[in-house]
Amino acid sequence: MVNPATLKSGGATAEPLAKAGAAADTAPPPRVQARQQLNASIVQASISVAIGSGNEPLALLYKSALTGINEALAPDFGPDAIQNAAGQDNSPEGTAGRIVSLSTAFFDAFKEQNKGLDDEAVLQKFMDTIGGGIERGFKEARGILDGLQVLNGDVASNIDKTYELVQQGLQQFADSKRAPA
Hints:
Blueprint: E1 8-9, E2 12-13, H1 15-24, H2 30-51, H3 56-77, H4 92-104, H5 107-113, H6 119-147, H7 153-178
Helix pairs in contact: 2-3, 3-4, 3-6, 4-7, 6-7
Protein name: DUF5610 domain-containing protein
Pfam family, one: DUF5610
Domain DUF5610: 55-173
């Protein structure tokens, strides 16, 4: 690696580069690092999508949905409430199943943090919170895939199917919480 302090421009040392290098030695906060890692993952997935891999768009959708959910849950549970798993089934069913199970897994903790609300109000607030994150994630994924000009055919129909399955899963979860014990 080149030491910025040793770079010369027109016979003078590159003093600003040395200062910038020193500033770069300090690590960014964990939230910034997590966002940088996500951006790198999105770029990698985007490259894979551009190459034409059939399941990578749903992997990107999953990452975007998790990011939206993480952001929605961050005020109550801190950054990265849900972590991305490696080696996963990227079919619409597999992707939807993970989105639903990972997002709804926080219900008991969410309920505990909202003790002042009745059960229906807690459930509604929780569903609104994760639903908003899921909506953002799907919107971001569609935007990225549309920008790459791959949001068509099987990719578009798989995303639509995944979204439909997620909505069904969320409804089943809500219904199960409303059912008499």
